[in-house]
């Protein structure tokens, strides 16, 4: 699985555009090897600058070429902005540490919300590799509030998922071979980047706080019923 980050140039300045290309290469290095079956030439200088030598036996190139994958799975949560001069407002809270995009809203944790960026990613990856794609992670981390009656109204999560799924549908209509989609995640769990339980992704709420206290009781959020209805529409 590739952790996919769509890199947008900060401006139309040629150096910003080039930086976005370089950022893309850094992100796609592993999938280039696993799908194309060889080390890309753009990494030669990177290895040389870092004094890294790839030692390969005579048969290794043949093994790489014959051992490619049949489809590509990847996660997508957000896009990022790269440029020559880091902004004072760089969103250090997000996993990319990217600059803020004035055209996008962001989550409570500073992750830009960019459904169209997912469609851009789908086109880029399919154009590059021409094999089926599978989105295996996509979702919104947010702090949920449990109402007095136990209900959890996470319309923000529903909105996030709906808009991203719409862009998937358009990408398929435009010719992308998208074989599947699984959101992150079905149930609340500790968020890996921040080690917080309060940053929740699930359709099912788990009663536990950041210190590990709680009953561990589970309850369905509004997004659970919305996604179940969506799933039922496509179930065969």
Automatic annotation (TrEMBL):
Keyword Hydrolase recorded: yes
Location of the active site: 137 (nucleophile)
A cellular-component GO term for this protein: cytosol
One BP term from GO: carbohydrate catabolic process
InterPro entries (alphabetical): GH, Glyco_hydro_1, Glyco_hydro_1_AS
Keywords annotated in UniProt: Glycosidase, Hydrolase
Any single Pfam family the record assigns to this protein: Glyco_hydro_1
GO function term, MF aspect, one: beta-glucosidase activity
Family classification: Belongs to the glycosyl hydrolase 1 family.
Name recorded for this polypeptide: Glycosyl hydrolase family 1
Organism: Atopostipes suicloacalis DSM 15692
């Amino acid at each position: 699985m590739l952790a996919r980050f769509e890199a947008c140039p900060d401006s139309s300045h040629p150096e910003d555009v080039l930086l976005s290309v370089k950022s893309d290469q850094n992100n796609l290095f592993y999938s280039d090897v696993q799908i194309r079956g060889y080390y890309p030439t753009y990494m030669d200088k990177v290895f040389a600058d870092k004094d890294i030598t790839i030692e390969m036996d005579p048969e290794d190139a043949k093994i790489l070429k014959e051992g490619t994958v049949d489809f590509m799975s990847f996660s997508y949560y957000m896009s990022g902005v790269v440029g020559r001069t880091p902004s004072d407002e760089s969103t250090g809270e997000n996993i990319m540490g990217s600059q803020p995009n004035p055209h996008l809203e962001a989550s409570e944790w500073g992750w830009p919300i960019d459904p169209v960026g997912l469609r851009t990613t789908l086109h880029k990856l399919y154009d590059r590799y021409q094999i089926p794609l599978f989105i295996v992670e996509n979702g919104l981390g947010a702090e949920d509030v449990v109402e007095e009656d136990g209900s959890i109204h996470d319309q923000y999560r529903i909105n996030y998922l709906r808009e991203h799924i719409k862009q998937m549908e358009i990408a398929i209509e435009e010719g992308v071979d998208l074989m599947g989609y699984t959101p992150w995640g079905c149930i609340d769990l500790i968020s890996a980047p921040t080690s917080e339980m309060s940053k929740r992704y699930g359709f099912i709420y788990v009663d536990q706080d950041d210190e590990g206290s709680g009953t561990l009781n589970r309850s369905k959020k509004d997004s659970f019923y919305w996604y179940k209805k969506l799933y039922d529409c496509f179930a065969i």
